[in-house]
Every structure is written in structure tokens, then in C-alpha cells.
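Chain A, query sequence.
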Amino acid sequence: MKKTLLIAGMFCLAFITAAQSVDEIINQYLENTGGASKWAQLKGLRYQGKVNVQGMDLPVEMAQLKSGKMYMKFELQGTEVVQQAFDGNVAWGTNFMIMKAEKSDHETTENMKREMQDFPDPFLDYKNKGYKAELLGKESVEGTECYKIRLTKKPLLADGKEVDNVIFYYFDTDNMVPIMSEQEIKSGPAKGMVSQSLFSDYQEVNGLYFPFSLTQKAKGQPMGQTINFTKIELNPTIDDSAFAFKDSDN
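Chain A, predicted structure.
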């Protein structure tokens, strides 16, 4: 069962108007999307949808478990391609040059281990995770007034060194849900650029609200890649083999 997130009847407008501290905003966000206790009970999520790549709508599936295991895969001309996967110890994905499974480098693997505790939401119990949240004021995102929150998480590795792990979230002041996040890319060809994720079309699934549309792009660029989800499952049963490295040579 799912239904579109509505303002009427769901939000306490008086509270929103008076919200001044970062914790009030975060607590209201968790409450508006189902409640912190219900989020904490989640053991896993599976997303299904479509992503448009060069004019083709490709089926895509993502899964995340509380244990840290995850995968993101899509279907290309009838062939399943794993873009990224992690079994809790080994990170891997498809090498698109040779179209074979390949283990990720040490930094990628270590960074995924460091962010395992983010499930199901980095703001849930964020202080006990060792994170820091700061309210920076208000900014407009595509005409929508937002609270801007800086979330500082545990450092990540980039080019052999530990670097700051900071994400900026923009919470719609009416609905009190994030509609965009920004993070500087710290390594690779895009180093120094800012990656943006835009969240929209919040819908309810078994008492929790999720954005059913996710667009990722570089800041300042007009175009990005959008995934439109058609189904989100709570606590799905997924065999461990779905996350395990698939050595094509064996």
C-alpha cells in the first residue's frame, strides 16, 4: 500500500514555524516520514524502478540491509549488470570494459565499511554514530525555501588519506523532508566537483515515506540521471548470494 505524501493532516504547522534547532528539524523529519521507532525496526529495503540511459529505460534494482550488505544492478539487453555490490567485507562491481565482475580497490571497500551504519537513514540516532549536524540557516532550492543542514560523518579515504565526509541537506520548510543533498567529490576524475542528489515524489509504503524519484547530477549542470522507483519493499528476503562476489573465472 502506498499513497502520496500530503501536507494536510500530517504536519504540525505550528511546530514547523517555531522550529529553530537542528534537532527539532531532524526529529520532525523522522516523525513526518513514519517515526524514528519504525525506521529503527527496518532490517532491509529493496527498490525496483527504471533509469533512462541514452534514451533507453533500463530496469534497475537496489537493495540495502541493516548488516551493511547492498547491491545496485540493472538489466541491459536481457543481461543483469551489477554496478556496485558489498557483502559486508568485499566490495565489487562489473568492469564495463570487459563486462566481468571485479573486486573494488581497498579505499572503496574501506569507505563502504565506514558507512555501513547509515542504514536506513544517516540522521537516525546520528549522535550515537559519532556524527555532527548543524543548522546553517535557510536557502532556496529551485524556488522552494529550505533549511540547510550540514551533516559531518566519520572521515573517508581518498587518495590514501583521510578526508572530511560532509554532506549538505536541504529540508523543505513546509514538508520538513530533504529535497536535495550536496557533497564534494574527493577523488577520481571528478575530484573537486559537487555531486547533487534531488529527492521528490514522496510516497508511503507500509507506514514509512520514501522519495520515489531520485536524480543525481553535477552541481551547475542542467542534466542528470533520474531513477523512478515503481516498488519499494520493506524487510525483503534476499539470499546472501545476491551480494557475494561472482568470480566469472570460476
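The chain has four helices and 13 strands. The two ends are 42 Å apart (CA to CA).
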